[in-house]
C-alpha cells in the first residue's frame, strides 16, 4: 500500500505552468506530456529485467532487457493527455482505453467505453488519469480492469486530493499511486484545490 509523490525540480517548474490560469492549450498539452515522461522514469523503477547477452564491437557481454510487458490504459478523456509522454519512454507498450466520466452533480463515475489489448492479463498495467479527486473514477477503472483478470496495476496521476488517495488505498491497497502533487483538498464542486481546473477541458480546449 503506497503513495509516491515524485519530487523533481523539472516537475515543479512544469507543474507551475500547468496550474497557471494563463497557460494556453498548446503549452498545457506540452507540459502535461513532459511531466508524464519524467514521472514514467520513476514509476517504472521496479520493472523486471531478464538477463541476455549482447555483442559489442569488442566482445560478448551480459546485458539486460525488459521482462515485464507493459500496457498503458488512459482513463478518457484526460488520461489521453499523458499517453504520448509515457510512450516516448516505453514505445513497445500496448494501449487500452477506458471511458469514465464524472457526473457533475453526484460526482459518481459513469462508464461508457472500454477497449483493452487482448493479452492485457499478462501485462503490467499503468492506469493513467491526471486528476485523482474523489477517487470514484480511478476506483471504477481498477474494479473494471480486475474484473477482466488484470492483476498487476499501478496508477499514475498528476494531482491527487487526500480524499481520492484515501479511497483508492482503501479499495485497492495493492495498487501503488504515483503522483506529481498531493494537493490540499476538494471544493464544494469536487474540484481539487489549488489544482489546475478541469484537466480534460484544458487539454482539449473545450471550455
Ligand atoms: C476528470 C478526471 C478524472 C475524474 C476525477 O474527468 O480526468 O477522470 O474527473 O474525478 P474523481 O476522482 O472525483 O472521479 P472528467 O469527469 O472531467 O471527464 P473528462 O476527462 O472526460 O473531461
Ligand atoms: N477533474 C478535473 O479535471 N479537475 C479536478 O479538479 C477534479 C476532477
UniProtKB/TrEMBL annotation:
5-phospho-alpha-D-ribose 1-diphosphate binds at residues 77, 102, 129-137, 198. Its EC number is 2.4.2.9. It catalyses: UMP + diphosphate = 5-phospho-alpha-D-ribose 1-diphosphate + uracil. It holds the Pfam family UPRTase. Residues 7-206 form the Phosphoribosyltransferase domain. One of its GO terms (molecular function) is uracil phosphoribosyltransferase activity. CDD domains: PRTases_typeI (cd06223). Its cofactor is Mg(2+). Uracil binds at residues 192, 197-199. Keywords: Allosteric enzyme, Glycosyltransferase, GTP-binding, Magnesium, Nucleotide-binding, Transferase. Catalyzes the conversion of uracil and 5-phospho-alpha-D-ribose 1-diphosphate (PRPP) to UMP and diphosphate. Belongs to the UPRTase family. This is Uracil phosphoribosyltransferase. It comes from Fusobacterium simiae. The gene is upp.
